[in-house]
Amino acid sequence: MPESPPRAWAEIDLAALRHNLTVSRKHSGCAVMAVVKAGAYGHGLEEIAKVLAEENIAFFGVANVGEARRIADSGVTTPIYLLGATWAEERAEIVARNWTPCLSTLEEARHFSDLAVASNKRLKVHISVDTGMGRGGFIPVGLPGILNQLEALPGIEIDGIGSHLPSADEDEEFTRSQFASFRETLDSLGGIERFQWIHLSNSAGLLGYDNAPCNLVRPGLMLYGISPIAGDQEKLQNVMTLKSRVTLVRTLPKGHGISYGRAFVTKKETRVATVGIGYGDGYPRHLSGNDAEVVIRDQRFPIIGRVTMDQIMIDVTGSPIETGDEVELFGPRIRVDEVAKKAGTIAWEILTGITPRVVRIHLPVA
Fold it and tell me: Which stretches within 14-162 are classed as H helix?
C-alpha cells in the first residue's frame, strides 16, 4: 500500500544540535550535563540522546525514571542524572540501574543507602542545595552537619553538589546573589575539593554569568537553538523547524467568516490557504488574533481566524500559493520565541508541547 507523506512534521537538525553543544562547552569552559527531559524538549528523546552520547558528555539530565529508562533501554551508556526529587517506589530501580539522584532530605538518602547496601553496592548521589528556587534541596543553613551524616551512610557516595537558578534570564541581582550563596555553601562544606561535580547553571546562567567555581553546566534550551539571554542568539543554530502543507486554496468573497466564532470576517475578496496543522499538533490556539504569521515560499503570510484543532487559515491574497506547498510554522525564518511571545507563553512550552502526531524527521549530520 502507498504511504502518504506527513501532513505536519518537525525537521530536527542534528548538526545544529552538535554546534550548540560546542557553544555550551566553549562559553562555559565546563563539562556538560545535557538536559533532555520532556522528550529532549520535544525533539525526540532517544534520537537526541544517541547523538549527544557520541559527544562524550558527562551526564544526561532527566525529570523522572521513565525518561531515564527510555535512554538506558536505547543502549546509551552515558550516566543519567535525575534532576528532581524521587519518591520511595522509584528508588529501587534507580539503585539497580546506577542512575544518579539528587538528594533533598536525609530520609531520601537513608532509603537509597539501605537499598544500595541490600544490593551490595554504593550509589553515587548529588546533594541538591536550595539557593532560592524553592522546589527542592537542602537549605544551606545547617548543611555542614547534614553532609557529615550523609557521608556516614554506607550505601551512598557523595559525587557532586548542585543548585538551580530560577530567574537567571530575568533578575541579574538575585542570580548573582545565588552564585555568592552557592560559593559560601561550598566553602562551609570544605571547599570544591570535596566534590567531583559542582553545578549550578542552566542555559541562562551558562550564557550570562561567570560559572566559577562550577565544573559542570546543565544546558537545556540553548542546545535546541534558543537563547534565553538577549544578545546571544546569533551564537546558536536552529534545531527544530515545524512544518506543514497547504491542503486547500480558495477565494472567498467580502464579508465571509473565517474559522470558529467568526472572529475574523473578510473585508474584501480574499485568497485563503488552509494548512494542515492546529492545536492538536501543539501549535498554540492562543496565537489566534495575535498577528501570527507563517512562511510559505520564503514569504511571510498572516494567520486569519482562530487556530483550530487540526487546521489554520492563511491570507495569501496576491500570491501564487498552491495546494501542497510547504509551510514553516517556526524555524530559521520565524523563531520559536517569536511564536511563544505572540501566544503569551515561553519557548520551552511551545517546543515541549508539539504532540506525538507530528512526525519527527532527524536530519543526519553531513
Answer: 14-28, 37-42, 45-53, 65-73, 88-97, 106-118, 143-151
For 14-225, give the CATH class. alpha beta
In sequence order, which residues have a C-beta less than 8 Å from that of residue 338 and are 6 or more positions away?
330
> Is 37 an active-site residue?
yes
Which residue out of 26, 81, 224, 260 is catalytically annotated? 260
Pick among 3.20.20.140, 1.20.120.30, 3.40.50.10050, 2.40.37.10: CATH of 240-363? 2.40.37.10
The C-alpha cell at 67 is 525518561
Are the C-beta atoms of residues 296 and 321 closer than 8 Å to each other?
A: yes
List of E strands, 119-186: 123-128, 156-162
Residue from 26, 37, 81, 283 carrying the catalytic annotation: 37
Q: How far apart are CA 196 and CA 183, in angstroms?
A: 15
Whether 41 is a known active-site residue: answer: no
Domain boundaries, the chain: 14-225, 240-363
Q: Tens digit of pLDDT for each residue in 267-307?
A: 999 999 999 999 999 999 999 999 999 999 999 999 999 99
Per the CB < 8 A criterion, the answer to whether 34 and 221 are in contact is no
Determine how many CB atoms are found less than 10 A away from the CB of residue 107. 10
Its pTM stands at 0.95
Q: What is the pLDDT of residues 217-264, one digit of tens each?
A: 999 999 999 999 988 999 999 999 999 999 999 999 999 999 999 999
Which residue, among 226, 198, 166, has the nearest Cα to 29 in the 3D structure? 198
Per-residue model confidence as pLDDT tens digits over 312-324 = 999 999 999 999 9
